[in-house]
Amino acid sequence: MAQPRVLVLDVPEPPGDQDQEPSPYEESEVHDSFHQLIQEQSQLAAQEELELQQRQLVAGALGPPGSGHQTLVGPGGAPVHSTATLRILASMPSRTIGRSRGAIISQYYNRTVKLRRRGSRPLLGNVMRSARPSLRLYDLELDPATLEEDEKRSLLVKELQGLSVAQRDHMLRGMPLNLAEKRCLREKSQVQRGKWRGPQDRAGVFSCCSRLRYACILALHSLGLAVLSGLHAARPWRYALKQIGGQFGSSVLSYFLFLKTLLAFNALLLLPPLAFLVGVQAAFPPEPPGPAPAFTGLELLTGGGCFTHTVMYYGYYSNTTLNQPCVPPRHGDQCSPRASSLPYSMPLAYLFTMGAAFFITCITLVYSMSHAFGESYRVGSTKGVHAITVFCSWDYKVTEKRASRLQQDNLRTQLKELLAEWQLHRSPRSLCGRLRRVATLGLAWLLCLGTMLGCSVAVFVFSEVMIQSPVSAGQEVRLLALPLVVSLLNLGAPYLFRGLAALEGHESPGLEVYVAICRNLILKMAILGILCYHWLGRRVATLQGQCWEDFVGQELYRFLVMDFLFALLDTLFGELVWRLISERKLKRRRKPEFDIARNVLDLIYGQTLTWLGVLFSPLLPAVQVLRLLLLFLVKKASLMANCQAPRRPWLASHMSTVFLTLLCFPSFLGAAIFLCYAVWQVKPSSTCGPFRTLDTMYEAGRVWVRHLERAGPGASWVPWLHRYLVESTFFLFLASALLLAIIYLNIQVVKGQRKVISLLKEQIRNEGEDKIFLINRLHSIYERKERSRAGRNEEATMSPALHADRRDTW
Which terms under GO biological process does the entry name (predicted)? Predict the structure, then answer.
């Protein structure tokens, strides 16, 4: 048996091209031998020859050509084409891509050659076909696969060494290989690269300075990677979000994603006050009004005591410039700073910092809402999503067993949600059934509205009782009464709403969640409206001569802490104790489900309290960040141990958009109105805070503008900007109209993208029909040629016999 010949490609290395940076724009001028070898070999593969032979046998068994049909139909209903059509189909790019790992490595070796070599050899297209290497003579299929793959890998590693670091990383990132093989290729190319590349001295070894520089660079790079990996591992949601999404579905996952978003918002809200208020005031502390009270532990609940005269609250901040001593005020006038200094006006900094923090939060919130809206409603239809999820969702780069199991759970949950949404059929109801349904819904809503009204009246009455019975110095525990009552109402009313929802019997679980969110939202917004009136309408009038800003800040701190404690109690008794009773006493395997509506509205309620109190307590966002982190850990642990997946899975594709919308319009808009009223209309306390000598907080800006007007004509443009941009209502309406226009344009852009996507899908479908039409036309032309050839052959065989018959008759 003849030994197969070995194909050797002698590619000389150009001598003067090693130090030149390769240009990606000259890829079309480089020889592409390996890629063409793989393509020619794939066309001659034995598997496709067998496939063609089998299809030819099927076509011959079904009938001869020329039967009058353009396309033959096989037993399974699929069209059976001729041999020429099958060869054309077998040579299509979609049939020859991704044959083996060796082909992939050879293809990317080819691309690296394109990046390194420019014009070192002629194009294969310029060489005559007879002079090209014939793949049939070398029979690469007979070579061992492992040796061939190792040789291609070594060639690829050698070519990767000649690329720059950025080009090598980009090439490795785009290879369709698993992570282990990419890591192996990167290590081999980097290790061998350091042996022969780099600046060398005359002796051929690294100099001392080069060694020191490379050692420092590698040490800094390793330190940066270690810090990044440590920060990545320190995140509490690093693995938890994937695990929750795989076990409980997208509906429960949306709650934790929303909690993560709130963490980012509070961190962004905390940065400006921390940099421009807290840090500056801590560097220049004011004189203490008296001896600080001892820490008793009750301050963690009430927010008072030793926390009162700290940077935690509004009253600690002074109304002077902080870079020089202040002359003691006379007759309650403002402190007068000395002549020569660079002033840092704390009233102005306080006003502008809070305004900038809220403006940044508003822009970020609107952008996040529009982005979530675009992501949720971008796809026009879900046709074919089941097949895409089954055949195209698995990530083949995952090699670890834990990650693959997690991905498997995630795909299984996605399929459950898709099938549940697809199988959701609303059965038609009779007239009596519809009337009964309307009566049930009306009664449930009447009970819910009555409950909301009763809770609001209870909060209002109890707040009036608290005003009429002031708290003395040693009775700070009584300050927890109002937060305790409000938290009890916020905890008990959602359970009543949940029981009424069970009686309503909604067919769609998504609709049930949205109805529960609506009811809880109305309840919490009504309670917050009454509390805002209690703080700015009643408390300001009763606390004349005292620092009412500190009281409001401490009250909001107490509400935030009490809400967190009740969330922990609800997690303990509502989930853990119920699971134990259900498993041990009732002998049931059913666990409680995670209440998405109530937990999400608790997050929105807590975030609204933070926005309401940031003006009176600049460090309240830090308390909210700590609260959200603890809540994430507690809720995640309780979910994994005490809850089960929803019995009726449903696809929560728009939940994040709904949550952000509720956070923006009722929550943030209400908090902004509350703070604007406090800044523009309410008189500050005359005994504490940076605005103690002013009629309103907003007057600090006017005082600064008048100071600039007296300073000279060089700063005259600042008062003009303040007069026409800040004080003018036209600019406010213009900014609001611009914001609404941006939201409207974003919605229209999303609608246009959906329309374009639908048009592209229709174009793809039309192109598929065009291809089928062309294949049928080719098949019909081939059939006609076969019939004409068969007719000529029949005439050629029949003509001698006809002449012989004629001679016999003559």
Answer: intracellular zinc ion homeostasis; protein stabilization
Plot region of 335 (φ>0 → left; ψ -120 to 50 → alpha; else → beta): beta
CA-wise closest residue to 478 among 555, 592, 408 = 555
State the residue for tokens 């409206």. 529
Distance of alpha carbon 676 from alpha carbon 393, whole angstroms: 49
- DSSP H stretches of helix in 614-668: 620-642, 655-662
- Note the helical H segments in 342-430: 346-376, 385-392, 401-422
Class of residue 131 by CB neighbours under 10 A (exposed 0-12, middle 13-18, buried 19+): exposed
pLDDT in tens, 731-746: 778 877 887 888 788 7
State the Cα–Cα distance between residues 483 and 468, nearest whole angstrom.
17
Residues 151 and 37 sit within 8 Å (Cβ to Cβ): no
Local structure of 454: helix, strand or coil: helix
CB 632 within 8 A of CB 231: no
DSSP string, 528-590: HHHHHHIIIIIIHHHTTTS-HHHHHHHHHHHHHHHHHHHHHHHHIIIIIIHHHIIIIIS---P
Q: At residue 644, what are phi and psi to the nearest 5 degrees? A: -120, 165
Asked if 321 contacts 340 with a C-beta cutoff of 8 angstroms, the reply is no
HSE toward the beta carbon, residue 200, CA cutoff 13 A: 9
Report the half-sphere exposure of 688 (CA within 13 A, side-chain side).
Answer: 20
Indicate the helix (H) or strand (E) that contains 73: strand 72-73
Could you give the CA distance from residue 598 to residue 517 in angstroms, rounded to a whole number?
7
Q: What are 734's two structure tokens? A: 């213009």
Q: DSSP assignment of 283-331, as one string?
A: HS----SSPPPPP-STHHHHS-GGGTTSTTSGGGS-SSBTTS--PPPST
Segment 430-457, tens digit of pLDDT: 888 889 889 999 999 999 999 999 999 9
Contact criterion met (CB below 8 Å) for 260 and 607: no
DSSP assignments along 94-159, one per residue: HHHSS--HHHHHHHHHHHHHHHH-SSSS--GGGS-GGGSPPHHHH-GGGS-HHHHHHHHHHHHHHH
Rg (CA), the chain: 38
Contact indicator for 516, 501 with CB cutoff of 8 Å = yes
- Say what angle helices 240-273 and 655-662 make with each other, to 10 degrees: 20
Beta-carbon contacts of 521 under 8 Å, excluding residues fewer than 6 positions away, are 601, 604, 662, 666
pTM: 0.71
> For position 415, what pLDDT does the model report?
84
Intervals of the chain under pLDDT 70: 1-146, 191-207, 323-342, 374, 376-384, 386, 424-427, 473, 712, 714, 799-810
In the numeric block, the tokens 């994603």 are attached to 257
Classify 69 as helix, strand or coil.
coil
DSSP state of 657: H
Residues 6+ away with beta carbon under 8 Å from 18:
162
Which amino acid is residue 750, in one-letter code? V
Contact 656, 517 (CB under 8 A): no
Residue type, 1: M
d(C-alpha 431, C-alpha 429), whole Å:
7
Task: Give the whole-angstrom CA distance, residue 451 versus residue 442.
Answer: 14
Pick from 104, 54, 558, 488: nearest CA to 304: 558
* CA–CA dist 160, 402 (Å, integer): 32
